[in-house]
Amino acid sequence: MVSSDNSIASSNGSLLFDERRWVTQICSTLEEEVEEGVQIPVSVFSVPKTLLSIKPEAYNPELFALGPYHHWHPQLYEMERYKLATAKRTQKQLQSIKLRQLVEYFIKKEHTIRSHYHRHLDFNGETLAWMMTIDASFLLEFLRNYSNAKGKVFRKVPTMSHMVDAARMKLAYNCILRDIMMLENQIPLFLVRKILRFQCPSYQSADKELSNMLIGFVKEVSPFKMMENFSSIDVRRHAHLLQLLYLMIVPNAKEASETIDETEVHIGIPELNDTKPTGNPSYVKKFFNSVWSQASGLQILGVLATRPIKFLVKIPWKIISKFPGVSILAARVAKLFFFQGDEKSEDEDSSNEPPLVEEIMIPSVTELSNAGVKFSATKGDLTTISFNSRTATFHLPTVSLDVNTEVLLRNLVAYETTVESGTMVFTRYTELMNGIIDTEEDVKLLRQRGIILNRMKNDEEVAKLWNGMSKSVRLTKVGFIDKVLEDVNKFHSSRWSVKARKIMKTYVFGSWQILTFLAAMLLLLLTCVQAFCSVYRCGSRRDNVTNLG
């Protein structure tokens, strides 16, 4: 009985302790908010479950934790000794203060640190300050690998030399790089700036050195090579590394975002004109495809489009279209012959409406190339995406893909989904690439044009990467990308070969009734020819002509 009372008392004691700590944290937070009077926007969110469920390994750190979200995970705690080693070296490099004084400064900035995180941090102020001091020291030492200094800090330290070598080919280096760029593994950059400030004579020199590190880092990890002439980075404008990289790739859009009201929609890029046939006439399809491929090279459609042929066709067409069965094809075939190319798309009337899933449809690279579209690489950010209808040229930024790119792309999408309130430009770009890349042949064509720089195993791996980027996100209009999608689809749909294939696929190959009707008409025609020849003796007349010759 006594033991049970003691256990109840101890449990009540721990509960009382938790309540007191909670009250203390709340009071401290409220007092600091009143004192500072400055609202700091949240920049580190948890990855949405809809994204996390698709590929959790792309969002959970593999080697080490930065910040509070994954700090106590047992599988990551082995790296703490390496982070402590960097903290010791940081202590030696501090000019006028000791590491303990730096921690005390971070304790005073507890509210600022907590404000960056969306999730509640169940740490007291001192624990959080020590954690951030050690993690910021580790991050600063890693970033020094990208400064203009010749020496590589990690290589100078025996316990850290296995992480980074001259060629940066070590497995551990790639793991660190991926972990650093994960959304839930971000820490505020002002902590790194403060440590560097105590190692440099002034804020100006500290900011210049940190700017050089960040420029080198972004040039190294960014899949888009658009920073050749970038001179400096204002460290104070960026909350953390992932936000910095995002803003380098996606400059602030001026257009207002138009978002579907908190609706999650599964974004898929279906095939254009993907109409299911009612039958499976495979042998007929092969025959018509063979005939069409031979006829397409003879410029027959160019002849059919001339005015005399149109006039000759138009007169009997009104009569022929009255026959049973032919009326089904009347509208489509009329478009094939009499299309003027100046009719407006229905999508133009709804250009201001929120986007639907169907509006993301776009043909693959192979299909566009077969329709006459040319691809051209640009050396810039995502705002360089465009389509020139006059030259049929699709402009896309060059993207470099390696073993770290998928994690980077997914976390940029997660950051944009959770943090950025404007248009989801980067997400729309990934949907565009998802749509135009279906197979390794599509990747090969883009690689030959310099749009994709493939540093992965093969083109098939790249195709799998982009095809795996389909996910559930909120839909939003991105004006210039939506205009490109519309122009590309309009150009592709206006091609004669595409129209004819669509008609044959939808109304001929997809309907046994039409095939039966055509067979009956052919049989009727042959019967008429046979009857005509039986009356007028076609064979004997041919023999007479041959004998006269």
From TrEMBL:
Which keywords appear in this protein's UniProt record, sorted alphabetically?
Membrane, Transmembrane, Transmembrane helix
Which InterPro entries does the annotation name?
DUF247_pln
Q: Give the transmembrane ranges.
A: 512-533
- What is the name of this protein? UPF0481 protein At3g02645
Q: What's the name of its gene?
A: LOC120112470
